[in-house]
Amino acid sequence: MRPGEKDGCTWNQFKELIREKCYPSYYRADMERQFLALTQGTRSVDEYEREFTRLGAFVPDLVGTEAQRAHRFTDGLRPAVRPNIVGHGVQTYARTVAIAQEVDASIRREAAQTSFQPVAQPPAQPKVAQPSTNKNKRKFKGGPDDRRNRQRQKSIPECPTCGKYHRGECLVGQNVCFFCRQPGHISPNCPERLQQQPQQRQPLQQLKQQQPRQQPPRPQQQPRGKQQAHVFAVDQREADQHPGTMSGMIILNDVPVYALFDTGATHSFISRRCLEAIGVRSTTAVDPLEVSLASGRKIVTDARSTDHSLSIGGRILITDAYVIEMRDFELILGMDWLTRFHADIRCHDREITLYLPGDDQITYYGSRTRTLPHVISMAKARKILRR
Predict the structure, then answer these.
(1) CA–CA separation, 103 vs 58, rounded Å?
(2) For a designed S-S bond to 277, which of 12, 42, 355, 358 qualifies (C-beta 3.0 to 4.6 A apart)?
(3) Long-range contacts of 144-152, Cβ-Cβ distance < 8 Å, separation of 24 or more
């Protein structure tokens, strides 16, 4: 017997025989399909890496080198994490995983603590009666108070660590409360903050009664009973091509998810993988919804999920959504939700201000986008929807 052979066959032939015996070709083909379709989704980087390693064992030709392995791992990361890896120019798999874990953990901590920042309400001004022809119009920009707020924000530097606008030391990654600067808890659970805001700790049922119900725009009745809807984007590429969209991490039912605020979407939408992540099942809607996508394709859904808790600036907002498949986002908040809170959307500054009952307001700061679209007002958004 020649060296390198075992029972009349080479070592590689022997390994192939064992592999075929234990893992038939149809099984390996199925594992390869799963590997090629694998993305991080709502998983943590640790969970994604374990699944990547498990499936990668069945496709050695696709991950034969460190560079191939690192490149394919990076391609499957969430859009919020991926740019940080590409910017480092990492070539080794171990270093790629380590950076992804660090970035993902930082994003989740930031989303849990400070993704939403309440804005101090200026002193109430006496309301002036308007002519009846303008009673349904609301000014979202251009007033002296608004100009002062915008000038004040422009005077605050952008933090190089977290990308937000604030003064002083950045606490991202220091594992301390962003409200009292003490370790052991996060900002939403800060005892000092909760003592100052006892009115915010209200039962979910009471919050539902206080907030207006989401009323999506009702189109003309269709012969088949389907409601008509449309959406600008269901993936990051489409979102980057359209003004009036802004993305970022939010907290939905205590789980960080990647969301898109879309003024071109008539309704709000949630993905099935997001429902699985937050442990919620959908129900069947009375009327199905026919959704027109930016690509021209139409999909029909009758799956709907209601009464989700959206945490913003220490306040709990309720949202409902139809279920559709999305590539990069877990949640799309459309015009039904945005108009409910009279949202003032400043896409160029990556800001959305929500006006709550009782003259309260909250501003959300979204993540960076590849494009810098112009400001879009709610009036302009409604005009786009009527086209």
Answers:
(1) 28
(2) 42
(3) 149/119, 149/122, 150/349
Assign 251 a pLDDT band (cuts: 50, 70, 90): confident
The identity of residue 104, as a single letter, is D
- Here the tokens at position 121 are 């309400």
Residue 212 has pLDDT above 60, yes or no: no
Q: Are 363 and 349 in contact (CB under 8 A)?
A: no
- Cβ distance 235 to 326 under 8 Å? yes
How far apart are the two ends of the chain, measured CA to CA in Å? 79
181-188 contacts at long range (C-beta below 8 A, 24 or more positions apart): 186/109, 186/112, 186/113, 187/113, 187/114, 187/314, 188/112, 188/113, 188/311, 188/314
pLDDT digits (tens, 9 = 90+) for 100-125: 888 888 887 777 665 445 544 444 44
DSSP code per residue over 339-362: HHTT-EEETTTTEEEEEETTTEEE
The whole-angstrom separation of Cα 329 and Cα 42 is 9
